[in-house]
């Protein structure tokens, strides 16, 4: 048996060393990245794929566009709201990763089947919004937590891969939903089977390491002093109960609310807006590109954020997301396909990437001890953003809603200027 030791660095962070990933898993820890990414590929269909079937659902007798968008908002509330409870239960040994993933597999499949066969919006709310949302949240929180636990030395890049997969997975579904609109029930049933099989298969293999586990290399205390990886280590470690005593928390929470509102608005309204002006083919291409740009942007930003500064990249991304809304408005109204696709790409690279940056910002601002729970609290801002985004899509059912969305994204970019590390005087902070 290897000798297990507990170490601390100059910032008070703990490290458990002595056990390799192969000894704990029987294989390299990279295996966890691909397991988590595969599960997220499957789970993300319910969010990014929903926009593709909004025009089809709107043609169901008695179903209103506002009711359908509200179903997506409730789904997002359930999906984001479960992140903190999942982390809290897991840290206390009450919800092991395999159990959370297995439950998520069943609930995700139930949500998709509901969308294919529901005859009333109430059924959609219960089956898709509540059950499907909770299932996706279980998978999302478990997979992100696994990356945080297995890659404490490379959290940003690995979180980018896993978070990007959540968007990438819906691209084939969006294309098929546009090509086979009459086959929606069959397509959703087949998708449900695939989603269940993928997530359940990952559930059987996904494991967490011991608390504070650290890989054999790099040496943790040397790594802690490497400014390439630790540009701004947290002043101290904040517990969840302490989080909202910091002004930075409120500012970061509002940034996530606004970014989520704009992204959820685009998902809910983009297909309907584009199809009404330029046809269903371009609408499908726009949604597929939105998902692909979001996924690719998350991977890229996950790799760059630690080097260039997360706050700086977050502000740039939100600026791009805000500009994108005005481009979408102008291009859609004037039927400029190239301009529309450019706006979609900017929107995906902009507002869709804040969640990847959120993982690193939580560690940078609030420390390591409760990182999964603190991430869950701040990620729950997506639930508030869903309400705002749904309101934009239903109360302002005109192209001018893109203008309002653009203003919200630009406001979030301005708000990034208030993001500073708790406990560190601004005069001591390096440039963002």
From TrEMBL:
<dbReference type="GO" id="GO:0005886">
    <property type="term" value="C:plasma membrane"/>
</dbReference>
<feature type="transmembrane region" description="Helical">
    <location>
        <begin position="31"/>
        <end position="50"/>
    </location>
</feature>
<feature type="transmembrane region" description="Helical">
    <location>
        <begin position="161"/>
        <end position="180"/>
    </location>
</feature>
<feature type="transmembrane region" description="Helical">
    <location>
        <begin position="282"/>
        <end position="301"/>
    </location>
</feature>
<feature type="transmembrane region" description="Helical">
    <location>
        <begin position="250"/>
        <end position="270"/>
    </location>
</feature>
<dbReference type="InterPro" id="IPR020846">
    <property type="entry name" value="MFS_dom"/>
</dbReference>
<feature type="transmembrane region" description="Helical">
    <location>
        <begin position="186"/>
        <end position="206"/>
    </location>
</feature>
<dbReference type="InterPro" id="IPR050327">
    <property type="entry name" value="Proton-linked_MCT"/>
</dbReference>
<feature type="transmembrane region" description="Helical">
    <location>
        <begin position="374"/>
        <end position="396"/>
    </location>
</feature>
<feature type="transmembrane region" description="Helical">
    <location>
        <begin position="125"/>
        <end position="149"/>
    </location>
</feature>
<feature type="transmembrane region" description="Helical">
    <location>
        <begin position="99"/>
        <end position="119"/>
    </location>
</feature>
<feature type="transmembrane region" description="Helical">
    <location>
        <begin position="402"/>
        <end position="420"/>
    </location>
</feature>
<dbReference type="InterPro" id="IPR036259">
    <property type="entry name" value="MFS_trans_sf"/>
</dbReference>
<protein>
    <submittedName>
        <fullName>Predicted arabinose efflux permease, MFS family</fullName>
    </submittedName>
</protein>
<dbReference type="Pfam" id="PF07690">
    <property type="entry name" value="MFS_1"/>
</dbReference>
<keyword id="KW-0812">Transmembrane</keyword>
<feature type="transmembrane region" description="Helical">
    <location>
        <begin position="337"/>
        <end position="362"/>
    </location>
</feature>
<keyword id="KW-0472">Membrane</keyword>
<feature type="domain" description="Major facilitator superfamily (MFS) profile">
    <location>
        <begin position="248"/>
        <end position="432"/>
    </location>
</feature>
<dbReference type="InterPro" id="IPR011701">
    <property type="entry name" value="MFS"/>
</dbReference>
<keyword id="KW-1133">Transmembrane helix</keyword>
<dbReference type="GO" id="GO:0022857">
    <property type="term" value="F:transmembrane transporter activity"/>
</dbReference>
<feature type="transmembrane region" description="Helical">
    <location>
        <begin position="313"/>
        <end position="331"/>
    </location>
</feature>
<feature type="transmembrane region" description="Helical">
    <location>
        <begin position="62"/>
        <end position="87"/>
    </location>
</feature>
